[in-house]
Amino acid sequence: MTYRLHPLINPRRPRARKVPLSLVVYSRLWVSRPCLRRPLSFQRKDSGAEIVRRARIGGSDRAVELEREARERDRDRGRERRDEENELTRKIGFLTATASEDWTLLLDVCDHASANESNAKEAVRALRRELKSGEPAAQLAAARLWAIMLRNSSDTVTFISQSTSRKFLDTLEDLLTSSGTSPVVRERVMDVLAAAAYASGTNAGFRGLWRRVKPQDKPEEGVPFDAEDAMFNPPLGGGRVSAYDYDTSSGKKSDKLYRDHEHGIIPPEEDMRRLFQECKIGVGNATLLSQALAIATPEDLRNTVITEFHKKCMDSQELIFTQIPWASAGAERSRAVMDQEDRGKERDRERKRKNSVNILNPNGSVPDLGTPLSTREEELHAELLSANEELIEALKLYDDLKRFAIEREAENRSRKVRMVPRLHADAEGGTGGGSLSHSRSPSPTRVSVQHPQVIATAADLTFRTEAQAQVGQQTLAPPPAAPHGRLPGAGLSRTPSQAHPDLGARAELANGFGQIFGQLVMG
């Protein structure tokens, strides 16, 4: 039985060394088993393994050189790829540490991050590291950079596919649900996640996370980016000058920036933008709370809508009130800087006024040609004061309605407490057989004379005294004095008067005493 040699083995060419045993076995298996025959096209032309295999088979010096070149080429390619990834990581770290407004550098990072899958993976890894373990300022800048990369990447599919990785989504969820996260950072990350969920459509990555962590008043499909947001628009003044080229080498300026990053200092522009937005939200919440309280009753204070808006107004008022001193100091500083800048232009302005005084104002007074403009810091201070006043008014309405509800509840409780003794007294009077009527009419049993012998031997004055004392105990006016014999008017009707029942009772009592006294005297 004859075996076919491997095609790479040339029997006519003298071999410099013996063929390894493994190669002979492989050649026999390759001939006897067609399933092991594989084309050579599955290997790359410049692969080091292919060159090594050829060198082992042919044993030529050219193959060894090709092998060395291939290894060096692979090493250089890997070094370049690592250098590119490291450079991208350094740029992202610089942008998050300094909150730079250099849009040239920002767009360069976007292009490199979407160049290939490895760069996108490295960019997402760098963002995840800053969001997970960075200071509030770095987290805020990382969220802003993530939003810019989502909008401006040349190949958003590659970058978005890496952004929906399990590790990155878990980092976002931990950041949004953690109690130690700064409110400014949480709101910024929430806005970017809402826009990512809206842009991803039915993708379960961003959409699923958004539905788990979204507020109740937000739609489930997400919220698109606001095109007028300041973080997507370059500053009018050109922004800050990028210091990336020389800061990384000198280290003087970057040290200060990194120290600011370690202390968690938020850029003033971002802080002012956030405060303007908070003022707008606070005024809206105050308006809605005032409208709800205008038609509410004390029982409606437990309504979930009123309770939620009251809590939002409390949070907004607390945040705005704490920022008023800072805004006031910033407004004073900005006004001082503007006055200092205007002081240099005052001479030219005075010259223009003097030249135009004869034309515009013949009386000789100098007109005011320049109108002082308010700075952005002064506008922020005025906005904070206005929003704080509206929030205080809305909270005052809530407190007044709550106080009224408490007073009415206390009044109802005191009324119930006062009625309890009366009910007990009425119940005791009913069980004793007495009438429930509150009439002061004397009872016949209490008016009867129990000791007539004492009255028979007494004089008229003594009888009157006894009668007055007895009637005084019944809280009635004393009867008139009765003469000897039959009292005048004894034959009159003893029927009580309908208009004055008490007077009729008194007359009947007096007539009864008169008859008894007359019988005793005549007898």
Automatic annotation (TrEMBL):
Basic and acidic residues bias located where?
Answer: 332-349
InterPro entries this protein is in?
ENTH_VHS, LSB5, VHS_dom
Domain VHS stretches: 100-193
Q: Which GO terms describe its molecular function?
A: phosphatidylinositol binding; ubiquitin binding
- The species this protein was found in: Mycena rosella
Q: What is this protein called?
A: VHS domain-containing protein
GO CC term, one of those recorded? actin cortical patch
Q: Where is this region: Disordered?
A: 332-372, 417-449, 469-500
